[in-house]
Amino acid sequence: MDLESGIYQNHVKKESWRTVLTLAYQSLGVVYGDLSTSPLYVYKNTFAEDIDHSETNEEIFGVLSFVFWTLTLVPLLKYVFIVLRADDNGEGGTFALYSLLCRHAKVNSLPSFQSADEDLSTYKKDISSPAPSTFGARLKSTLEKYRVLQRFLLVLALLGACMVIGDGILTPAISVFSAVSGVELAMEKEHHKYVEVPVACIILIALFALQHYGTHRVGFLFAPVVITWLFCISAIGVYNIFHWNPHVYQALSPHHMYKFLKKTQRGGWMSLGGILLCITGSEAMFADLGHFSQLSIKIAFTSIVYPSLILAYMGQAAYLSKHHDIRNDYSVGFYVSVPEKLRWPVLVIAIMAAVVGSQAIITGTFSIIKQCSALGDTKRLGNASGLAVITVMLVTTCLMSLVIVLCWHRSVLLAICFVLFFGTIEALYFSASLIKFLEGAWVPIALSFIFMVVMCVWHYGTLKKYEFDVQNKVSVDWLLGIGPSLGIVRVRGMGLIHTELVSGIPAIFSHFVTNLPAFHQVLVFLCVKSVPVPHVKHEERFLVGHIGPREYRMYRCIVRYGYRDAHKDDLQFENELVCSIAEYIRTGTNSVDNDSTKLSEDMFVVGTPSTHLDGIQMCEDNEPDEETAGPSELREIRSPPAAAPRKRVRFVIPESPKIDKGAREELRELMEAREAGIAYVLGHSYVRAKKGSSLIKKVVINLGYDFLRRNCRAPTYALSAPHASTLEVGMVYHV
C-alpha cells in the first residue's frame, strides 16, 4: 500500500466531479473486489450441511431475504450513510476511530505525547468539548480518569486490527478457490480435482508477487475487471429472473426470514454463518477511505455494486427455485445458475475478479491452501472468514457508539439505538459463526490471538523501555557540570543522537559521555515520533529548540509524523533537519515575544525548506569557493576555504529581517559542522526484567520482547545511516 497516497487525496477530495468519478472508478478495483465476489460462495456455504433446498423453496427464499436485508442494513445503511462520516481527517478504519477518540477524550497511549502536539492543525480540526452537564462530558471524564478503561479501548482497537489481518489471510483462499471451483462443472469429475489446487496456488503466487506495486498503481488495472464481473453477474441475474421465476422479488419481504427460521430452527440459525459471507469486504469501504473520498465510495457502491449484487443473488435464487434435483454438493453453487455456454468465459472473469478481491494481506495463504486440498471444498474457510468479518464489524459498532457521543456530541439515546440495532444484527451472525468453532471458526481466533499477543508484548516492552528512559534521564545542568571534571572536549562535526525522549538528556548519552568524554561541536538530540493524526503538514513537521545556553550549540529537534505519513530518513531528510535548525536560529530567538509561534519548553514550529522559500536554503557543491551572482535581496554565508577541494555547504539567507552577530556566528558553526560531516549516535539497548519481577514479566520481557526486538526490522534511520559514520552505544535497561 502506498502511504503517500493519502496526502494526495486530502487535497483532491474537494475537486471537480470528474475527479470524484475517477476516484469512484478506481475504488471499484481496490475497495469492492472482495464484496463483489461474494456471490461465488454464499449460497454454497449456506446450504453446505445445516439446511436443505426443498421443493417448497422456503429455504432459498428465506436465504435471499436474509441476504437482501443484510446487504441493505450493514454495508448500505451502516457504512455508507453513518460510519463513513466518522473519518479521521479523511482516513478510515478501526485505528482511525481509535485515534479520533484519543484526541477527543485524551486517552492517548503514546508515551511521547506533548501538549504542543495538540496545536497541530489536523489535531484540532473539528474538536470541541461537550457541554459540562451532558452525558458526553461525564463519559469523557470517566475515560480520562480510569486507566483500565483506556487499556480496554486500546485492546478493542487491537482486536479489530488483528481480525482484519486474519480476514486478509483467509480472503484470498476462499475467493480464489470458489472461483476455480467452477472447473468442476466445466471438466470431467475425474480431472477437475487435479486442476483446482495447482491453479489456485499459481494464481495466489502471482497475486503475492504483485503486492509491492501498490494500490494506486493497480487501481486502474483492477477496476475494469470488477466492472466486467459486476456487469456479468447482474446480466446473468436478470436473465435468470425473467427466464426462471419473474416473481422472485416477492422473496425480499422480511416475512420470508420468519418462515425460514420457523421451518429450519437450529439448522437455519447455524446457516447464518454462510449468509454472513455476503458482506465480506464491507469494512474495506471504511478502511480504504484514505485512498479515495466519502463521495466516491458512496457513488460506486450505491450506483453499481449494490444493485449488481442484489440482481445476482435474486437471479441465483430464481434459478434454484426451479431446480431441486440434488446430484452433488455443488447443486446450489454459483456456476450451476450460469448458462452452460457461458461457463468458461464466466469462469475466467470470476478468477480475475477473485484475484482483484484478494489483493490484500496474503501472508499465510499457502498453508491454508494445503489444508483446503485435504478438505475438498471451501466450507471451513467460509466459517473462519465469517467470524473474522463479523468481529471487525462488532468492534466498529462499539467504537462508533463512542464517536457518536464524544466526537459528534449527539444524544446518548442515539448511540444506544445505534448499538442495539446494528449490534443485535451482528451479534446474531456472530453467534452463528461462533457455534462452528471446531469447523474452521477457530482459525481467525487463533490468528488474532497470536497477533494480539505480539502487539501487546511489543507495546508493553516499549512502554517500559520509555519509562526507564524518563526515570533515568539527566538534566542539562548535570551534563554541563561534569564537563570540567571529565575534561570533555568538542570535536569538529555534527553529532546526531537519536532518542525517544522529548525532554531531558537520555541515559544512553550520559552513559556514552562518561566513558568517552568527547562530543561534537554541534549536538542535535533527534526524536522521531508518531502523533495520533493521519498526516502532519510539512509546515508543522519540526519542533526545534535550544538545550542549555545558546553558546553550547546543543539543540533538540522533534520530527512529528502522522500514522499515515511515510518516514524519510535519507540525505534529503538530513538537509531538511539542518535547514530547520538554521531557520530556527534565524527566526526563533527573534520570536520569543510572538505567542503564536512559541511553544512549551521553548520549542518552536519550523517547517521543511519547501514551506519557507523566503527563509534559509542550503546548497551543497564541490566547486571552489568563488563569488556567485545572485538576487540582490539574498546574501550567502560560506564556510572558510579549505586546503583541498571538498563538498561545500552554503546557507543562502534573505536580506530581511536582519540577524544579529550571535545568530550569524551560530549559523556559521552549524554550517561548518554540517560540512565536516554527521556522526550518528544510536542507542542499542538490552531490555531485561529487573530483580524481583514476577515470572510472567520475566517471560514477557526477557523472552517475548527480546525475541521481537532481535527479529524485527530496525528503524529506518538505523538502516539508512552510513556505517562508517555510525556509533552504537550499548546499555542494559532493567525495567
Quick summary:
The chain is of the alpha/beta class and about 725 residues long. It contains 29 helices and ten strands. The strands form two sheets. A seven-stranded mixed beta sheet has the order 5-3-4-2-1-9-10, with helices on both faces. Strands 6-8-7 form a three-stranded antiparallel beta sheet, covered by helices on one side.
What are the salient characteristics of this protein?
disordered N terminus; elongated; 55% helix; three-stranded antiparallel β-sheet; alpha/beta; 11% strand; 735 residues; seven-stranded mixed β-sheet; 29 helices
Largest sheet: 7 strands, mixed
* Spatial arrangement of strands, main beta sheet: 5-3-4-2-1-9-10
Distance between the termini: 36 Å
If helices are DSSP runs of H or I spanning 4 or more residues, what is the number of helices? 29
**How much strand content do the residues show?**
5-15%
Which value, in Å, is the CA radius of gyration? 30 Å
**How would you state the average pLDDT, rounded?**
78
User: Into which percent range does the helicity of residues fall?
Assistant: 40-55%
Oligomer: single chain
Shape: elongated
Low-confidence stretches: 1-13, 360-376, 590-600, 625-635
Structural class: alpha/beta
Number of E-state strands:
10
Subcellular location: Cell membrane
Membrane topology: Multi-pass membrane protein
Transmembrane segments: 60-81, 152-174, 220-242, 267-287, 299-319, 344-369, 381-406, 412-430, 442-461
Region (Disordered): 620-642
